[in-house]
């Protein structure tokens, strides 16, 4: 399993960071987690066939995790017609305006009838022969989730946006041996995370959704400190093999 970090910024893009998005590759199939930026551009730059994208799933409705979905659905609708991704959203209220927007840009022409857009809830959200995704509810907003990704005998936890570690840090991180834990660093200091990270069974921990201006000092200090796991910060374009 390989992860490509497309966007690692907080709620707005910075000069060197775009909004949240990650591509997961398993057996030459691709799975998109959050689409806060135009992921389809990165697929093209990496020579990844859009037809090989199996899933696009968003952790919660906020724009910095969903705005890139419009361009993705638009191009899959009229140009990459052989592509058949399952698009899973955390709130059914997102679907009608998404469809309406694409229809309007096509001057009233309806979306492809076979375009699959649906919702997910807590628990088993997706599975195929390569990968399994479990959604874990958090308290960042009304419909917010973390994702446990299991593939090739490996386990990766993407926390998504959290309220704060003391409130909704996923319990599964303490119960399960994780090969990689990816945790946000926008809504609270990395200092707040360490006591919880230290209790996990994670082999490697990376921060994403990074708010440099707010937490730069704390992040630099924690990155320089020793930890019982591999600890680091993700950046746009970073590739990680699990």
Summary of the model, kept short:
This protein is α/β, with parallel strands linked by helices. The protein is built from eight helices and 16 strands.
Structure description:
With 242 residues, this protein is an alpha/beta fold. The chain has a single domain (2-231), classed as 4-Layer Sandwich (Metallo-beta-lactamase, Chain A). The protein contains 8 helices and 16 strands. A hairpin with a 3-residue loop joins strand 7 (123-127) and strand 8. It starts with a strand and ends with a strand.
- Roughly how many Å is the radius of gyration? 17 Å
Q: Main beta sheet: strand number and arrangement? A: 7 strands, mixed
Which overall shape is indicated by the principal axes computed on the Cα atoms?
Answer: globular
What's the CATH H-level superfamily name? Ribonuclease Z/Hydroxyacylglutathione hydrolase-like
CATH C-level name: Alpha Beta
- Summed up, the helix count is 8
**Any idea of the CATH topology?**
Metallo-beta-lactamase, Chain A
Give helix and strand order, one letter per element, not per position: EEEHEHHEHEEEEEHHEEHEEHEE
Terminal-residue CA separation:
5 Å
Number of strands: 16
Q: Do you know the CATH architecture?
A: 4-Layer Sandwich
Q: Average pLDDT, to the nearest integer? A: 97
Features:
242 residues; Metallo-beta-lactamase, Chain A; 7-stranded mixed sheet; globular; alpha/beta; 8 helices; single chain
């Amino acid at each position: 399993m390989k992860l490509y970090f497309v966007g690692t910024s907080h709620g707005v893009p910075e000069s060197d960071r775009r909004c949240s998005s990650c591509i997961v590759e398993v057996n030459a199939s691709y799975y998109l987690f959050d689409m806060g930026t135009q992921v389809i551009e990165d697929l093209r730059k990496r020579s990844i066939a859009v037809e090989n994208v199996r899933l696009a799933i968003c952790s919660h409705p906020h724009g910095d995790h969903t705005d890139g979905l419009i361009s993705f659905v638009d191009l899959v609708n009229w140009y990459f017609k052989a592509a058949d991704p399952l698009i899973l959203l955390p709130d059914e209220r997102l679907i009608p305006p998404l469809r309406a927007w694409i229809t309007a840009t096509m001057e009233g022409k309806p979306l492809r009838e076979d375009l699959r857009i649906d919702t997910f809830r807590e628990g088993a959200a997706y599975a195929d022969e390569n990968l399994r995704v479990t959604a874990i509810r958090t308290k960042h907003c009304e419909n917010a989730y973390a994702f446990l990704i299991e593939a090739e005998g490996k386990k990766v936890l993407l926390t998504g946006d959290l309220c704060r570690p003391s409130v909704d840090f996923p319990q599964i991180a303490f119960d399960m041996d994780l090969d990689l834990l990816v945790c946000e660093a926008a809504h609270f200091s990395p200092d707040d995370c360490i006591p919880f990270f230290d209790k996990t069974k994670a082999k490697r921990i990376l921060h994403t959704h990074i708010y440099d201006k707010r937490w730069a000092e704390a992040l630099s200090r924690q990155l320089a400190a020793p930890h019982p796991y591999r600890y680091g910060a993700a950046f746009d374009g970073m590739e990680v093999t699990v």
